[in-house]
């Protein structure tokens, strides 16, 4: 079991790196799909089958189709990509650093290695997940749905071509 976790971990890190290092945007999206499938395999090994299925359906299915659709609609040429590559690298480093700070701040109090007796064994089940999601995390759940709707509107606005003004 441990060797399987190490192999999946290596493959996940490798495909995630290929998302960043790939020069062609379509290949990056395909590597991202592979990364999502490997993360779902990790969820299965952690006895979180519901999260694995949701990850495959939502991320590898719907969001990746949306990414591919937007990439094909925008039809980015290499000239446009080269002009904005420097600013994209700088903004990516800044956003990645901010995300790392938020992640560290969110997880700093979540590790308590002193008390192992009270570990729950029903964490991955749908009933417990639904009760937790719609009681303790109701507001963040609703806020994330608003963010998803605004992302869809933004994608539609990017895809919409500007009409020429005829005078």
Number of helices: 6
The main β sheet shows up as:
none
Radius of gyration: 20 Å
CATH architecture of the domain at 1-75: Up-down Bundle
Task: Give the class from helix and strand content and strand pairing.
Answer: mainly alpha
Strand-residue fraction? under 5%
Name the poorly predicted regions: none
- Overall outline: globular
Mean pLDDT: 77
Instruction: Give the total of beta strands.
Output: 0
Give the name of the CATH superfamily of the domain at 1-75: NADH-ubiquinone/plastoquinone oxidoreductase chain 6, subunit NuoJ
Residues in helices, as a percent range: over 70%
What is the highest CATH level, the class of the domain at 1-75?
Mainly Alpha
- The CATH topology of the domain at 1-75 turns out to be Four Helix Bundle (Hemerythrin (Met), subunit A)
N- to C-terminal separation? 70 Å
Order of helices and strands: HHHHHH
């Amino acid at each position: 079991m441990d060797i399987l976790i190490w192999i999946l971990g290596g493959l996940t890190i490798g495909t995630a790196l290929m998302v960043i290092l790939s020069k062609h945007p379509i290949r990056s999206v395909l590597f991202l799909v592979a990364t999502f499938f490997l993360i779902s395999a990790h969820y299965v090994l952690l006895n979180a089958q519901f999260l694995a299925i949701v990850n495959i359906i939502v991320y590898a299915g719907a969001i990746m189709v949306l990414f591919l659709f937007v990439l094909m609609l925008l039809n980015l040429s290499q000239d446009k990509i080269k002009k904005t590559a420097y600013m994209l690298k700088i903004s990516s480093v800044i956003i990645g650093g901010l995300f790392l700070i938020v992640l560290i701040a969110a997880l700093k109090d979540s590790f308590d290695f002193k008390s192992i007796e009270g570990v729950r064994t029903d964490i991955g089940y749908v009933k417990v997940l639904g009760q937790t999601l719609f009681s303790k995390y109701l507001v963040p759940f609703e806020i994330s749905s608003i963010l998803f709707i605004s992302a869809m509107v933004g994608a539609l606005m990017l895809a919409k071509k500007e009409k020429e003004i005829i005078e």
